[in-house]
Amino acid sequence: MIGVLSEEDFEVNHLCGALEVSRSAYYGWKTASPNLYEQLDQRLGPMIKDVFHQHRRRYGARRIACELQERGERCSRSKVRKIMDPMNLLAIQPKSFKPRTTQSNHRLGYNSNLLLEGIEMDRLNQVWVGDITYVALQSRFAYLALLMDLYSRKIVGWSFDENMEASLVIKSLKDAIGNRQPATGLIHHSDPGGQYAAKEYRAILSRAQMRQSMSRAGDCYDNAFMESCFGTLKTELEMATYQSYEEARREIQEYINYYNALRRHSSIDYLSPNRFETTCQT
User: Fold this and answer.
1) Which whole number is the average pLDDT over 162-168?
2) In what order do the strands lie in the sheet with 187-190?
3) What's the pLDDT at 218?
C-alpha cells in the first residue's frame, strides 16, 4: 500500500529529482553534524557581529579581521567577509574624494610647501598638518579645526567654534602644543588660508620654533592628508544637521577620542594612533 505523501515529502522528492540525488543522501546531509570549517564559521559569527556593532558599522572585513587576530582568533579578511555577507553586515562607505579649494585671497603672506622636498617621515612630532571644515547646525554653521601628527595619524589638537576666525585655529594650535610639547624644528603644514597666515598664529609658531609650510594656492591635493581625515570623520559620524552646537561638540569629541584610541588605520599597519605611538616609544 502506498502511503500518502506529505507536502514536505513532495517538496523533498521534487528537490532530489531536480538535483539528481537520492532521498537518503539528502537526509544524510540534513542531519549531518557541521564540519570543522562550519563550526569555525558558527563560532566566529557572533564575534564578528560584536566587533561590527562595537565600532558602529565603521569597520569592514579587513579591520574586523585585524581585531580578531589580535584577540587570538586566526581568520583572514576573505573569511570575515564570507561570514559578514549572509548577516548583511555592511560597513559605512566613504564618499568619493571631492577637491576643495581654500579661499586664500589675502595679503598676509604665504609659505612654500616644505612637504614637496620629499621628507622622510620617521618620528613623532616631525610634521603636523592642519585644516578647517564646517559642521551644519540648525540654520547656521559651526567650524572644526584639527591638527594631526602625520607620522602617527593622531589628532593632537582640535577646536570647535561658531566662527572661523584666526581664534579657531589658534585654539587648536595651543591645544596641540600643550598636549605634545614638541621639540624645535617641527614642520607645521596647512592650506594657505588667512587664519593660518594671521599675525598671532605666526607668532605662536615662531615662539615654538616651528617651520611653517603651506599648500600651493588652489591645489587641495597638497593637503590631502587632512581632506582624507575629514572625509573619514564625516562619513563615520554620518554627519547631517545637528540640533545644537552642544550636541555637535559632544559627538565630535567622542569621535576624536575613538579615532585616536581605537580606530585602526591602514597607513600605520592597522593600529590605532595611540597604539602606534606606544610602539614608537618602546
Assistant:
1) 92
2) 155-161, 140-149, 127-137, 187-190, 211-214
3) 56
222 and 135 both lie in a single domain: yes
**Which residues form the domain of 13?**
1-87
Asked whether 252 and 237 are in contact (CB, 8 A), the reply is yes
CATH number at residue 230: 3.30.420.10
Number of domains in the chain: 2
State mean pLDDT over 114-123.
Answer: 84
Give the whole-angstrom CA distance, residue 248 versus residue 31: 54
| Top-confidence residue, 7 or 166 | 166
Q: Are 177 and 128 in contact (CB under 8 A)?
A: no
Q: Please, how many CA atoms are within 13 Å of residue 34, restricted to the half-sphere of its CB?
A: 8
> How far apart are the C-alpha atoms of 185 and 209, rounded to whole Å?
6
Residues in the chain: 282
Report, as an integer, the average pLDDT of 114-121. Answer: 83
At residue 206, the 3 state secondary structure works out as helix
Three-state SS letters, 48-111: HHHHHHHCCCCCCHHHHHHHHHHCCCCCCHHHHHHHHHHHCCCCCCCCCCCCCCCCCCCCCCCC
Range with lowest mean pLDDT among 56-65, 95-104, 197-206: 95-104
Tell if the pTM clears 0.85, that is, is over it: no
